[in-house]
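Postdoc handover notes: sequence design on the structure in folder B. Input tokens:
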């Protein structure tokens, strides 16, 4: 894994990723072991010499501080949200695990569990800019929009499963909601596609009745040109499974079931990263997990975490487009485009796209570097705006355009 570049001055608003990797840990159900897995992975990463930040994003039910044995009033994300602190960085506190710092969720004010769009984007931007090799996001249960949005910035997104049927169905529903969340973000206001999404979402009430294939067929009838965007909304999800509380070989069946269900229904491959064993008596050790993990009793789960990390690095090597792209090529603006945009800024970008001549979008598949496939026209770029604005901005910059809204 990459070490962070510490030579650069920290400017969270510069839009440049500094955190080496973000790992979000979610998966729908409460009690499957997301928080335990977060701490175990943080500990294993720090033993590999990584600088880690554990971010407790289970807003409203935060417990990492307790599991880490930290008592008393800990500053945390609430202070950032009420603007008592200007950066997340200054809120990080040391934990008993060496090189692991905590962004605590202990402090809470009512309303904190429902973030505004701007607040969420600001948190995401600051998380990406933390000075750490790995930032682990411990997410809450359920399919809250905020949880889904945090889950989506991870590479890969980690689903924790417990060996029980309910956990598999929950994880599946969670992934399906992630897909709908993306699709609604792009097509929600589309006069024909928007209602189709809402219909499919309602029909999907019975956990397994949704099928991406029939949904795609419906959308194709409405407007074939948007199909690449539909497929991309699904493909952008990079989920991987951690089976927790494994006691026997049968546990793998649950991971297998989830993989099959997700592939069959939403045509998505979920990587099975590995297992964490069920540890007798762990619940009694919860208020001081670091000490337990360092004791002989914790050796088995730590060894399993090491295997998980080895698999993670093998299957999800780091790729950082923001660091390898424009740099200083002659004639290209060396500034990095911003990563998030307010509704107003998206509107400005949308008007800008409208004002461009057709030739700006007229790339054939071949010119766009693909052997075949649909041409991405103006409408598709406009739809993509609501989904991956930074890509649209890069496309425009690549076509020699510049506009103040591109940059922070
Ligand atoms: N690998 C494990 N072995 C034994 N008990 C576990 C394991 N992982 C989690 N638990 C227990 O399950 C309960 C819920 O774990 P927690 O991490 O808080 O779940 P979540 O964050 O998903 O709600 C805790 O009591 C914890 O002790
Ligand atoms: Mg938890």
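Designed sequence:
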């Amino acid at each position: 894994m990459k070490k962070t570049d510490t030579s650069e001055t920290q400017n969270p608003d510069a839009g440049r990723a500094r955190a080496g990797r973000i790992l979000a840990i979610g998966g729908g159900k409460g009690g499957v072991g997301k928080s335990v897995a977060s701490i175990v992975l943080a500990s294993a990463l720090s033993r590999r010499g990584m600088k880690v930040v554990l971010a407790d994003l289970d807003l409203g039910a935060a417990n990492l501080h307790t599991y880490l044995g930290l008592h008393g009033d800990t500053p945390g994300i609430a202070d950032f949200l009420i603007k008592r602190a200007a950066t997340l960085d200054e809120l990080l506190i040391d934990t008993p695990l060496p090189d692991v710092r905590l962004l605590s969720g202990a402090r809470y004010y009512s309303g904190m569990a429902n973030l505004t769009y701007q607040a969420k984007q600001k948190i995401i931007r600051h998380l990406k800019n933390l000075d750490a090799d790995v930032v682990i996001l411990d997410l809450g249960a359920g399919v809250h929009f905020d949880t889904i949005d945090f889950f989506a910035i991870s590479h890969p997104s980690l689903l924790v499963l417990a060996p029980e049927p309910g956990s598999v169905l929950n994880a599946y529903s969670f992934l399906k909601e992630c897909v709908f969340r993306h699709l609604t973000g792009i097509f929600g206001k589309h006069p024909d596609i928007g209602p189709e999404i809402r219909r499919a979402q309602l029909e999907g009430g019975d956990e397994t009745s949704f099928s991406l294939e029939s949904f795609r067929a419906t959308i194709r009838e409405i407007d074939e040109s948007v199909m690449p965007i539909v497929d991309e909304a699904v493909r952008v999800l990079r989920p991987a499974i951690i089976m927790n509380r494994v006691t026997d070989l049968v546990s793998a069946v649950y991971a297998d079931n989830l993989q099959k269900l997700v592939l069959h229904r939403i045509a998505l491959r979920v990587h099975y990263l590995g297992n964490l064993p069920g540890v007798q008596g762990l619940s009694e050790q919860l208020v001081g997990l670091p000490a337990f993990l360092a004791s002989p009793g914790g050796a088995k789960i730590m060894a399993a975490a090491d295997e998980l990390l080895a698999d993670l690095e093998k299957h999800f090597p780091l790729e950082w487009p923001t660091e390898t792209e424009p740099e200083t090529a002659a004639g290209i603006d060396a500034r990095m485009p911003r990563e998030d945009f307010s509704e107003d800024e998206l509107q400005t970008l949308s008007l800008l796209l409208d004002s461009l001549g057709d030739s700006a979008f007229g790339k054939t598949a071949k010119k766009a570097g693909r052997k075949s496939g649909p041409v991405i026209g103006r409408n598709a770029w406009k739809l993509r705006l609501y989904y991956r604005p930074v890509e649209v901005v890069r496309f425009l910059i690549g076509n020699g355009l510049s506009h103040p809204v591109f940059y922070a």
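Context for whoever picks this up: The domain at 20-176+234-319 is CATH 3.40.50.300 (Rossmann fold). Don't rerun without checking with the PI first.
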